[in-house]
Amino acid sequence: MRPHNSGHWSMDGAVTGQFEQHLRAVLGLPLGSTAPIGGPGGRTVMKNLFGASASDLHAGVPEAGRHAPEAKIHLYGKEPRPGRKVGHVNVVLAPEPGEVAVAAAELDRAQSRALHAAALITGTTTDD
């Protein structure tokens, strides 16, 4: 049994990510906190990277990092091919001081930045 890739957001967005949690469970250790990094109102946007036109995914990482410096880019070392998940991008958000949750507009901007970073890495286009 292994963690499902739908939880890859937790690598950057939770106090204890799914992979660490899996190891803790297998080893009989106490489970860690699954609280969001940004506090109770924190959010994480995750965009999967699928093999596309770029044969060298690493070539797009510097530009993606300049476009979205807050993005956490995870490449899996897999050979890109159409439809194959080869990585993901996480953008972690915390509410502004005095706010209970991340504003919808900021969440939309983070999603746009993650999408654009993913497009730069995979060599695809985006409407943003």
Tell me about this structure.
There is one protein chain. The chain is an alpha+beta fold and 128 residues long. It is built from 4 helices and 3 strands, in the order H-H-E-H-E-E-H. The protein has helices at 10-13, 18-26, 61-67, 104-122, and strands spanning 43-50, 72-75, 85-93. A 3-stranded antiparallel β-sheet has the order 1-3-2. Helix 3 packs antiparallel against helix 4 (104-122). The radius of gyration is 16 Å and the shape is flat. The mean pLDDT is 88.
User: What's the order of the H and E elements?
Assistant: HHEHEEH
Structural class: alpha+beta
Strand coverage percent: 15-25%
Number of separate strands: 3
The helix fraction, in percent, is 25-40%
Mean of residue pLDDT?
88
The profile of the biggest β sheet is: 3 strands, antiparallel
Low-confidence sequence ranges: none
Number of helices: 4
Summarize this structure as a short list of keywords or feature phrases:
alpha+beta, 4 helices, 3 strands
